[in-house]
Amino acid sequence: MTDDVQLAEGLKFWRTKKGWAVLQIHYTADPDKRSPEWKQAAMDSMPDRQSFNREFEIDWTSTTGLPFYQLFYEKYVEDRAYFIRPQEPPPSGAMIYRGFDFGFRKPACLWVWQSADGICRVLREFCPENIDVFEFRDAVRYLSGEIALDDKTFHNKPRAVTCINSLWEHPFFPKGTSYQSFCGIEAKHVSSITGDHGELNDFEVFEAGSIPLQIVNQRVSAGTYIIRRLMKGSAAGTMLQVDPRCNTLISGLAGGLTFGVGTKATPLDDEVAVHPDYSHIHDALRYVACGVWNVADVEQRVNERLGAVPQVAQSRNPEPPRYGPSVEAEAEDMPFWATAAQE
């Protein structure tokens, strides 16, 4: 790559090794965008400083290896109670959302409730290891108050029993609690660890166990954007609260999850690096975030808490369970599971 040539303020030119001409236009090329006031307003419009640096400063390397959720990381050190607060089960009749990620012998389940004030309350997590999908499914059913911990269901599931008994409290929720469950398109892929029951996928195993799954077809960046907006909060407090018993999720959000590698030649838009311990529970949270909120919804609720004039929300009707296509690339461009209501 040839050396950069500064043509004017905010304008830079260079040629790649293959001879491609590149003209980089920075926001300061516009004289109206050079004032400290404009920059501060632009920073306030972004979820965090890292996002501002990538979007406006064209800096694709500054965040590599740094905490992916910078605000959570900072608050974890300064004021741990800002995000981490005890969360008790919601009132009877409330809907709890479950997010699932089916990692290789290391799956994860997250229980989330959205209270009337719009706060996303992460209630409990379950992150067992070395467990097949049948044992994982029935352990989740028990922890959710849907079945009993008896020999009829668990006589041939010793790993599930061991994981359950390692918890300091169980089950998490009483019998009769209502759930809606979300997962990614990978649940439809054929699994090689579904026990001795043949080549079933995770989706079919859960459906057979009375846990219908909603396939969430959204890019990673959509979920992480929603999570960041929920974190941003205001004087009224953050819109994301996590129970201290969710140790794995907290460890990931508080710095365990970092930015992936990005360069000027191959920029990665809001990529989070894969982590063996934290990626699965993070994905479970992403699926709930995309299943319950969309970008317009979360933006409106956050703006209301920041003191902006409330806007009339567009009502949305939930669609019936969608199983999605078998091709992951096609699934990424499908809309949210809940779409705008028809007039």
Biggest sheet, open or closed, and with what strands and sense? 6 strands, mixed
Helix content: 25-40%
Number of domains: 2
Kindly provide the radius of gyration, computed on alpha-carbon positions and rounded to a whole number of angstroms.
Answer: 22 Å
Name the structural class: alpha/beta
- CATH hierarchy, class of the largest domain: Alpha Beta
**Total helical segments:** 12
Distance between the termini: 55 Å
> What is the H-and-E element order?
EEEHHHEEEHHHEHEHEHHHEHE
CATH topology of the largest domain: Nucleotidyltransferase, domain 5
Q: Rough shape?
A: elongated
Mean pLDDT: 79
Strand tally: 11
Widest β-sheet, arrangement of strands: 8-7-4-5-6-9
Note the beta-strand portion: 15-25%
Uncertain regions spanning at least 5 consecutive residues:
309-343
Known CATH architecture of the largest domain: 2-Layer Sandwich
Could you explain how this protein is built, in words?
The chain is an alpha/beta fold and 343 residues long. The chain has 2 domains: 5-55, no CATH class; 72-343, Nucleotidyltransferase, domain 5. Helix content is 31%, strand content 15%. It is built from 12 helices and 11 strands. The strands form 3 sheets. A 6-stranded mixed β-sheet has the order 8-7-4-5-6-9. It has a 3-stranded antiparallel β-sheet with strand order 1-2-3, with no helix packed on it. β5 (108-114) and β6 (120-126) form a beta hairpin. 36% of the residues are buried.
